[in-house]
Amino acid sequence: MSVGNNIKTIRTNHGLSQEQFSEKIYCSTQTVSKLERNIISPNITTIKMISHKFGVPINEIISDSYEENIFEKIYFVSKEMLSQGSIPTIDSVSKNTSFSKKLLKQKFKTDQELLLFLIKSFDMKIQSKLLNYIHNQNEIIQIFINKYLPILMQNESFLKPLYHNISTRVIIINYLKEVYSKNLLMKFPNCSTLEINIKLNIIIELIISIFTYNSRLHYKEVTALFNDITKDLN
């Protein structure tokens, strides 16, 4: 993304017209129009003014990935809030960043959409690796227990508040069922939907049981129990 596109994104994210934006950075509307269309390049004074007025670091203004940086910052701040036991909302993320509520509502219509973004962003980092570990449908439960759960436990401070809260737990459960059912059925087309869903339900119950109790004390005990109970179901 060009500098001009970044400037336009900053302006529209704050719900400003070119005229309103020009007044804030002390230049003409025509200049803003030319900047956004990359007809002219901003000088360092203009870049510093935009940075100061809108709380955007200079390196992000001239970056090729400003829009991506917005989502990265939202994800990072939200993880920090969860690690402190607070469920992120559009309002609370706005208070902990330079992003206005208006900007955040352009990205997420509701608090649920924000939470789904966090869940999906975390899961996408490990989903493809996990699915690559599974070579046949008989390994599904075992691979989840041995490969997926340890990763979840490493992120306990971030995930535990999500599982403790009933509303966010429902969002996670629905996401896991929808995404993993679809992906596993694509990977193993000869496997029935019922079989996949039964195995996913077992895995999800295991995750919930760990994160809604004293997870450190129960992790080995619970996984050993599930390994024993499900050894004939794999």
From TrEMBL:
One of its GO terms (molecular function) is DNA binding. Keywords: DNA-binding. Residues 7-61 form the HTH cro/C1-type domain. InterPro entries: Cro/C1-type_HTH, Lambda_DNA-bd_dom_sf. This is XRE family transcriptional regulator. PANTHER family: HTH-TYPE TRANSCRIPTIONAL REGULATOR XRE (PTHR46558:SF11), TRACRIPTIONAL REGULATORY PROTEIN-RELATED-RELATED (PTHR46558). Transmembrane segments: none annotated. It comes from the Bacteria. PROSITE patterns: HTH_CROC1.
